[in-house]
Design a protein that fits this description.
2 domains; eight-stranded mixed β-sheet; two-stranded antiparallel sheet; 9 helices; 10 strands; 19% strand; elongated
């Protein structure tokens, strides 16, 4: 349908429009292939777009050259001269046919460029709008969630119908307003991924989907564990440790627990000679908010963890705000995509 409508346009509108669209798409796809690591297939597609635009440019150049050639003289209708000057005949001026008025190529090309600018502006404005159609708040668009679409879902997810996936968690957590909730509104996410894992030491029988969103300052992880351990039982387990910096609270009407622990740091030598393998070391301090699946705390929980390489941590209120913004979206996401 679109191709039929394009063919209906005049030549001096259709061709510049096709050249502009082909050039923009070709350059964009080539950029994605060369700098975003999308592979050789997008590079070939981008080259085809640019080749098509180049052929159209050649066609327009030939058309312009043809218009600049001198036109043949207009047909003139004159009275034939008499064979013998018997009598003086009146001189009849030559009759010239009115020249056909041709469309202005510059005006048509300008209209094509203006039409393309309007279409590009509309697409740009649409890209700035969030999914709900409201005006953007100025936050940068988050990084796209990286998912392993070819990976087979573990059997633990099939035996737990209510379990969400790593994709559901990534869609819920990777919000444009997440940097503002963390206290770093000027940042944007540089990496986001979702995985369909299982809980360790459970023989792959307990579903534990996870997602990670990375910023320059903070890294945020969100996981859901579908086991029988309640938040109250987990709170009792923390008393066997040092019990430092543990807070009990309620989030969204559900029992919750704030705890702190150090991440693990492992260094590998991959043969580059720039580093050496070493034992597991203590990494930066992380703050985790554990929230029960429901208000009755019947087992299973969400774990929202935040840490940074510098050791800085946001306030506990930031974790609570993130949980209150993200957890309702997980339920909705599972309903829409499950």
């Amino acid at each position: 349908m679109l191709g039929f409508l394009v063919r209906l346009l005049p030549f001096w509108i259709r061709e510049p429009l096709i050249i502009l669209v082909g050039t923009v798409f070709g350059v964009r796809i080539l950029y994605m292939a060369l700098f975003d690591g999308e592979g050789w297939v997008p590079a070939v597609i981008g080259a085809v777009f640019l080749l098509g635009a180049a052929l159209r440019v050649r066609l327009v150049v030939h058309a312009l050259r043809a218009r600049r050639r001198p036109a043949p003289p207009a047909d003139e209708v004159t009275e034939p001269a008499p064979s013998a000057p018997v009598t003086a005949a009146p001189v009849v001026p030559p009759v010239r046919r009115p020249a056909e008025k041709k469309p202005n190529a510059f005006v048509q090309a300008s209209l094509a460029i203006g039409l393309f600018a309007v279409i590009g502006g509309a697409l740009w404005i649409e890209g700035k709008l969030p999914e709900d159609g409201t005006a953007a708040t100025g936050a940068s668009r988050p990084a796209a969630c990286r998912l392993d679409e070819d990976e087979k879902l573990p059997s633990a997810y099939r035996s737990t119908p209510e379990a969400v996936t790593g994709a559901d968690l990534c869609r819920a957590l990777n919000l444009p307003e997440l940097p503002e909730l963390l206290g770093t509104p000027a940042e944007r996410s540089v990496y986001a991924s979702g995985t369909d894992n299982t809980a360790p030491l459970t023989d792959r029988k307990v579903a534990q989907p996870e997602t990670r969103v990375e910023f320059e300052t903070y890294t945020v992880e969100l996981s859901a564990t579908y086991n029988k351990l309640t938040v109250a039982q987990y709170a009792k387990l923390t008393t066997y440790g040092d019990g430092g910096d543990v807070r009990k609270l309620t989030v969204l009407g559900r029992p919750a627990l704030l705890t702190s622990d150090h991440m693990m740091k492992i260094q590998f030598d991959l043969g580059s000679g720039e580093g050496a393998s070493g034992p597991v070391e203590q990494g930066p301090l992380a703050r985790t908010l554990t929230v029960a699946f429901d208000g009755k705390d019947r087992g299973g929980s969400y774990d929202l963890t935040v840490w940074s390489e510098s050791g800085l941590l946001p306030d506990d209120s930031a974790l609570v705000d993130i949980a209150e913004a993200v957890l309702p979206r997980i339920t909705q996401g599972a309903r829409d995509h499950g």
